Amino acid sequence: TAPLLSVRDLTKTFPTRSGMFSRNKLAVHAVDGVSFDIGQGQTLGVVGESGCGKSTTGRCILRLIEPSGGSVVFDGKDVLALDAKGQQALRRDMQIIFQDPFASLNPRMTVGAIVAEAMTIHGLGADAADRRARVATLLARVGLKPEHMGRYPHEFSGGQRQRIGIARALAVEPKLIVCDEAVSALDVSVQAQVLNLLKDLQDELGLAYMFIAHDLSVVENVSDRIAVMYLGRVVEIADAADLYARPQHPYTEALLSAIPIPEPGRRKTRRKLEGEMPNPITPPGGCHFHTRCPIRKLPLCATERPEMKPCSAGHMVACHLRG
Ligand code: SF4
Ligand code: MG
């Protein structure tokens, strides 16, 4: 069966701030040829340091920002060709949850009004009473109380606010939710609770997730597949278990060795990542990772872009020396 979401060669270029004041306009290739699929009811974890383009990728898929190129097919529809009506329908089928739900929850609206508003926009619910009943059910489903309906966002903790964001996303019965660093700001124990809630909802409702995080440990237990991004490109993609057991890209190895190892001996290769993330406006040539790569081979790695290639079933890597 066709995947629910299929992204091919997605690109997004931004003019830079300095470019606006100089004659030579510089462009940041925030997303630089990204491809992946997400199956119905599946989770793709997307991981990389800040500035790697993971959030921009998520926003392009929802057309919250316009991609510069490539293709996005969702549920059989060409997302980048949708007219206004089609985009409205897309906004229902694909929802997004942000890192800071507080910033996206209107402080002047009650929780009940916030969740009901999402339904009203998409013409869901027979009338106000019906929507109210649905809101009560949704709040209970995400671990809040129906009587929370009349309260305001500032009356809730970070974890509770994220639950409100989830209830609002669920209110329109989406097929895919982009979780953009959705648990990154939460304490570890609260993180685990919200992750468990998202997993339960997935099992119950058949939701697909694109789960964006900067840390591989966060996505491990929720992802079916994982894509690792570096400076706008996917450098490795694999089934989650395969990625953790047999990482191929030196950058993935570096990210993994930053995670405390619960079982000694589970990972053979431990590498420290040298240096800072390069400026995305002027990324290193060839393999973007070559300035930090412990196994680089020069001049090859500095001059030729490594393309994604299969290294085993369902496992792709972009490295001249691997795969
Ligand atoms: Fe390292 Fe070269 Fe592979 Fe890039 S292509 S990850 S620089 S070995
Ligand atoms: Mg699952």
What small molecules accompany the polymer chains? Answer: iron/sulfur cluster, magnesium ion
Give the helices and strands as they follow along the chain.
Answer: EHEEHEEHEHHHHEHEHEEHHHEE
Distance between the termini: 27 Å
> Mean of the pLDDT scores?
92
Q: What is the CATH superfamily label of the largest domain?
A: P-loop containing nucleotide triphosphate hydrolases
Describe this structure in words.
It is a single chain. This protein is α/β, with parallel strands linked by helices. The protein has two domains: 38-64 and 80-230, Rossmann fold, CATH 3.40.50.300; 248-323, no CATH class. It is built from twelve helices and twelve strands. The chain has helices at 17-21, 54-62, 84-93, 101-104, 111-121, 128-141, 158-170, 188-205, 216-219, 240-245, 250-257, 300-303; strands at residues 5-15, 27-38, 43-47, 69-74, 77-78, 94-97, 176-180, 208-213, 225-230, 233-239, 309-312, 315-317. It has an eight-stranded mixed beta sheet with strand order 6-7-8-3-9-10-12-11, with helices on both faces. α5 runs parallel beside α7. The longest helix has 18 residues, at 188-205. It is globular and about 70 Å long. The mean pLDDT is 92. Iron/sulfur cluster is lined by residues 249-250, 287, 289-290, 293, 295-297, 301, 306, 319-321. It is found in: Cell inner membrane. Pfam families: ABC_tran, oligo_HPY. Keywords: ATP-binding, Nucleotide-binding, Transport.
